[in-house]
Amino acid sequence: PVVVNVWASWCPPCIKEQPDLNAAAAALGGDVEFLGLNIRDASQDDAAAYVRDLEVPYSSIYSADGSALLPFAGTLTPRSIPSTVVLDAEGRVAASVNGRIPTTQTLVSLVEAVRDE
To answer: Which end of the chain is least crowded, N or C, by CB within 10 Å?
Structure first.
């Protein structure tokens, strides 16, 4: 599975959920890929500061105009900050959380369910 998290550096819920995302990435280890999707940030410097300050352990794509959300049309909108999508082995959306993930375990359980299908 691949976990895609949509975030912006100025988004308080994004900042609040990042420790849970970091913990989920650590708990799931190499079984799962994580990718951040940074949208609507004014500059790459703002995005880089977020990644550095919150110790994000995975890569992110910078998409200031939000065009990187297009593959998720019907699941995510340009206002979907934060949101998290879990893709299955075929690259299909298998689960999504619109808004902040409630807990690390919530995300780990979603990913494990997708992985075990």
So the answer is: C
d(CA 8, CA 51): 10
Phi, psi of 44 (to 5 degrees): -65, -25
pTM of the complete model: 0.94
Strands 60-63 and 93-98: unpaired
- Interacting residues of 15 by C-beta distance below 8 A, sequence separation 6+: 50, 54
Q: Which pair of structure tokens corresponds to residue 62?
A: 């910078």
Give the helix/strand (H/E) hosting 48: helix 44-53
The residue assigned the tokens 């409630």 is 102
CA atoms within 13 A on the CB side of 72: 26
What distance in Å separates the CA atoms of residue 40 and residue 7, rounded to the nearest whole number? Answer: 9
